[in-house]
Amino acid sequence: MALLNHPFALALAGVAVVLGCVMIWYGGRELVLAYRILTNDPSDVMSLGDGGPVEVEGTAQPERGTVTSPFTGTECLAYEYVVKEERNSNNGRHWETIDSGRTHTPFRIEDETASALVDPRAADFRFSAERSIDVRGGTRPPERVVEFIRGNDDVDSEERSLDLKVVELNTGKDRKYIERRLDPGESVHILGEASYDASAGHDAGEVNVVIGHGEDTRFLVSDTDERGATLRVAWKGLPFVVAGVLFFAIGAFVLGW
Question: DSSP characters for 200-252?
């Protein structure tokens, strides 16, 4: 019990309580959002009004063309990429993110009633399907990845070796080049805010509404339906709640609460 009364132990306990509260708050926020998505049925695109939060689902369709994903060269509407490199530490090997980014273009969400324009600039993407290209250190990556490295100052070449005259050793580190995309024709679920825009609809079946970020509204774009979006949000928040409760309980026990 003497250790529990030590100032250093008490300080650590206080940190654990604070950290637990923060994690519970963050995870709980995600779980509340998941509950909101699950209990509110998506609106028909045709019924979208001006202002206020909206939830819609349908298929994603191009508006002004597409963008090209960096590693597979796929024409898509939005993508995120991550470059991870294997590193060694005192705790063993781990994968460390050395670069990440995203690109997108305005697109339309279409259901059986109409289509609406989506401005994804401030969206929180929740794309599930990963396309990972694994490259061993010292070997030449696929040409698309080589082009990406040439145009990116933050990622150097892993195609390195050490010539020992008798044998040549590969010295580059193993990497994973990962991209997540929203492709044309894919299912899409959107939680955001609708605002009137006279230029957003040009043809029959297009409403004069833009769905985007709102000051008081979360803006999520998921390449799935309502049920899938609910599960992704919930699974993101649940580990934080569990870990937060554990940290809080340990800290509270040490502090004698």
Answer: S--STTEEEEEEE-BTTB--EEESS-HHHHHHHHHHHHHHHHHHHHHHHHHHH
Map residue 72 onto helix, strand or coil. coil
Q: Report the relative pairing of strands 53-62 and 130-135 from DSSP bridges.
A: unpaired
Classify residue 106 by its DSSP letter. -
pLDDT at 155: 85
H or E segment and range at residue 103: strand 92-104
> Which pair of tokens denotes residue 78?
């939005």
> Do residues 77 and 182 touch, judged by C-beta distance below 8 A?
yes
Name the residue among 197, 214, 221 with its Cα closest to residue 127: 221
Going from the C-alpha of 120 to that of each of 69, 111, 152, 219, the distances in angstroms are: 16, 18, 24, 9
The β-bridge partners of 189 are 57, 222
Which tens digit of pLDDT belongs to each residue from 40-88? 889 999 998 777 889 999 999 999 899 999 999 999 999 999 999 998 8
Length of the chain: 257
Pairing, β 124-126 against β 220-222: parallel
